[in-house]
Amino acid sequence: MDNPLHVRHWQGMTIPSPGTYQIDPQHTTVGFVAEHLMVTQVRGRFEDIDATIHVAEDPLESFVRASIPTKSLTTGTEERDFHLRSPDFFDVDGFPAMTFVSRSLRAGDSGSKWMMVNGAMRRRSRHSQSVTAYGDLTIKEITAPIELDVTIDGITHDPWGGERLAVSATGQVEREAYDMTWNVALEAGGWLVSKHIKIEIRAQAIRQ
Q1: Does residue 147 surpass a pLDDT of 90?
Q2: Hey, which bits of the chain come out as E strands?
Q3: Is 2 part of any domain?
Q4: 143: buried, middle or exposed (CB in 10 Å: 19+, 13-18, 0-12)?
Q5: Which of 2, 116, 141, 154 is deepest in the core (most CB within 10 A)?
Q6: Predicted confidence band at 127 (pLDDT cuts at 50, 70, 90)?
Q7: Residues β-bridged to residue 207
Q8: Is residue 1 part of a domain?
């Protein structure tokens, strides 16, 4: 083959050989899901991201660094986006970017991942080929740990001769840990906006 993929096999998975991948923001979605009124979901995303994946010789020593402009947030509703960008939530004028840095990886973890079912957070078994990434998420200059379940979706060539890595990741954050405490108590009990937010990432990255 004239242009072989840079891949290897590890823990039953096909993974990249050592190297660096740059996230392609045009083919990447960093999304979030919140409960609204305790019964429905509100979805949003960040439309821009600058991130690099460093694949090490020892796969568990690989790491990711990412920076996301908070002004790129959108939920499809102008009034809601304005509120989310305000000091009640992301305060995008005061804190124009949030960052993520992974600290460690673990393969074959026996825990579980979060999913949304009928408007409520549930846990489900991890995919057997997933890797758990433990890292630090910084929002509004407040850093808290986050756990992401990461799956390698594929490694392939694009039509221009580049090599692309596709990955998915899910996790959960508690927004109040980042000084996003705004809420409204409901008469029937509960809160207008859930305190726990699900993170959903679908990314493509290009080998450098």
Answers
A1: yes
A2: 7-10, 13-16, 19-23, 29-36, 40-46, 50-55, 63-69, 73-74, 97-107, 112-117, 120-125, 131-139, 142-157, 163-174, 196-207
A3: no
A4: middle
A5: 116
A6: very low
A7: 21
A8: no
**Is residue 129 very low, low, confident or very high in pLDDT (cuts 50, 70, 90)?**
low
CA dist 202 and 151 (Å) reads 10
At residue 109, does pLDDT exceed 70? no
Q: In this structure, what CATH number is given to the domain that contains residue 78?
A: 2.40.128.110
Query: Nearest CA to 17 among 62, 52, 56, 51?
Result: 56
CB atoms within 10 A of CB 33: 21
Who's near 43: CB < 8 A, 6+ residues apart?
Answer: 31, 32, 33, 75
The token pair at 15 is 């993974």
Range of the domain at 155: 7-13+21-207
User: Which residue from 172, 171, 174 is spatially nearest to 142, judged by alpha carbons?
Assistant: 174
Note whether 43 and 75 are within 8 A (CB): yes
Quick check: is 116 in a domain? Answer: yes
Confidence band, pLDDT 50/70/90 cuts, at residue 37? low
Specify whether the CB–CB gap between 20 and 52 falls below 8 A: yes
Q: Is it the case that residue 116 has pLDDT exceeding 60?
A: no
What pLDDT, on the 0 to 100 scale, is given for residue 108? 65
Mean pLDDT score of the chain: 88
